[in-house]
Design goal:
The chain has about 475 residues and is an alpha+beta fold. It is built from 14 helices and 17 strands. The strands form 6 sheets. The chain has a 4-stranded mixed β-sheet.
């Protein structure tokens, strides 16, 4: 794929989004259908106004809120927020014993070396594009944490990056909502629209799913590096987190004539991943956790849970894809309730491979060609194996094997023969100078999917850290597991 074509890739994070902006109807007494005020149901992550012009990457040089539960300080910080603080020394690096893992970690870290902005501490969402959402900065935090723990990032550079980022967050411009705007410049930390044009008043709204992932990243930082805990807590206290949950559901906002319209956000998988992330900050989305509208379907004879809220009845697609379940496992650990869904999700992909001979690792991912982003799902809108864009249009010719899904499945289930096959397939899907590619198309004539973004490379680093920690989720303080090296 020519570099000029790659640089024309649509913003990966913008195209995470989905919305068909239809008002919610209430044909039944189901709580998800009848909130006190009409709402729009938005799938995940992110949401945006489809009427805005799609942004393109620019050419840049290479390289009153809910109560926040503070963590106990171990030890008490000795620096004030105004002064740079130095992380506790690592007593022993968490090493990667396999050469393939070491190679993969170095390749994924290439993305960060190219795309970290020294002015702000923010990392570009897509290669060489100085723009970001908070979902992507959650990935960036976890990727930097993983790199430091794995020994890729020296201590002086780690502390530089953390201090620069925290300084940016301490003075981050906020809209009247009191929540971070959906998008920002990674060069200046100024508010941007989702088409990467200036948004000085912050009228783009907010995504609760993006914020939940970023808050999870901040929680990992405050728990593993307690010197930063007070500072992170003060930053988050500036934000009006009470807006993130409404009537027990996840709550976002999208621009409308005359202001913002608050919307329910999330579908099964993404919804629960985000709600559990918010719990780390004592923010309770009880309906999202306990009352999602679920029904059972069979795909190739395997039973799976899907969200009843689909494109037809809610205006948003009910993607059943790998990403939220894999992040949930790597970062927080699966609870017993979700494990059968996870096991069947892997089983149905393995079965499709056995049935068709097509290696299958679905996901939401950026593409290197129009429509530039697809949700590839086991099931969506009443059909199996759907690869659709944000408006629900199908692109079966662009089904792909996802690099980040392959790495994550192997880290989570290393003894499973199919996950080993996936990992071996994905090992070399990289550019030596830019990092890992999003994947490879199932149609062999199309070759690799040459898009490069923060989420693929950060999640690869997360998966490798998860392995190095003895398969303990990233939110856990490793000292509680009897390990060394998290501090």
């Amino acid at each position: 794929m020519a570099i000029s074509v790659i640089k024309s890739m649509i913003l990966q994070s913008v195209l995470y989004t989905t919305t068909n902006q239809q008002l919610l109807l209430c044909p039944s007494l189901a709580t998800w259908q009848c909130s006190p005020t009409p709402s729009i149901l938005i799938a995940a992550p992110d949401n945006f106004n489809l009427d805005v012009e799609t942004p393109r990457p620019q050419t840049v040089a290479e390289p009153t809120a809910p109560t926040i539960t503070p963590l106990p300080l171990k030890p008490k910080p000795t620096a004030t927020p105004e002064k740079p603080v130095i992380p506790s020394p690592i007593t022993s690096l968490l090493g990667l014993t396999q050469e393939t893992d070491q190679i993969a970690a170095k390749r994924a870290w290439k993305y960060f070396e190219r795309n970290w902005n020294p002015q702000t501490g923010l990392v570009n969402s897509a290669d060489n594009l100085p723009w970001t959402t908070w979902w992507d900065q959650g990935s960036a935090l976890l990727g930097i944490h993983a790199a430091y723990q794995l020994g890729l990032l020296p201590k002086d550079r780690f502390q530089q990056r953390m201090n620069t980022l925290l300084e940016t967050l301490e003075k981050l411009p906020l809209p009247a909502t009191g929540l971070p705007n959906k998008a920002y410049s990674t060069r200046t930390a100024e508010m941007r629209h989702l088409n990467d044009t200036p948004d000085p008043k912050g009228v783009s709204g907010w995504s609760v799913l993006d914020m939940a992932r970023f808050l999870l990243g901040l929680h990992v930082m405050r728990s593993h590096y307690p010197e930063y805990s007070d500072r992170i807590n003060r930053i988050v206290t500036r934000w009006n987190l009470s807006k993130l949950v409404k009537d027990g559901w996840l709550n976002g906002a999208i621009p409308r004539a005359g202001g913002l319209q608050e919307v329910q956000e999330g579908r099964l998988g993404y919804e629960q991943y985000a709600a559990h992330s918010l719990k780390l900050w004592n923010i309770q989305a009880t309906n999202a956790l306990s009352n999602p509208p679920v029904k059972m379907v069979e795909v190739d004879g395997i039973t799976l849970q899907i969200d009843q809220r689909n494109l037809k009845n809610s205006g948003a697609t009910n993607y059943l894809t790998n990403d939220p379940y894999l992040l949930w496992g790597l970062e927080m650990g699966w609870n017993d309730a979700v494990k059968p869904q996870v096991q069947n999700l892997l089983k149905v992909q393995q079965q499709r491979f056995k049935r068709t001979g097509i290696l299958t690792a679905i996901n939401e991912d950026s593409l290197d060609r129009p429509p530039y982003f697809l949700y590839y799902s086991v099931y969506a809108n009443g059909k199996a194996w759907q690869a659709v864009n944000v408006t629900g249009k199908a692109y079966p010719q662009f089904r792909f094997v996802s690099t980040k899904a392959a790495f994550s499945w192997f880290a989570l289930m290393p003894d499973h023969p199919y996950t080993k096959r996936l990992r071996d397939f994905a090992q070399n899907l990289s550019d030596k100078n830019r990092g890992y590619l999003s994947g490879r198309y199932e149609n062999s004539k199309l070759g690799v999917n040459a898009s490069v973004d923060i989420n693929t490379n950060a999640i690869i680093l997360e998966s490798l850290l998860y392995q190095a920690r003895g398969r303990h989720p990233l939110v856990l303080d490793a000292r509680s597991q009897g390990e060394q090296g998290s501090q």
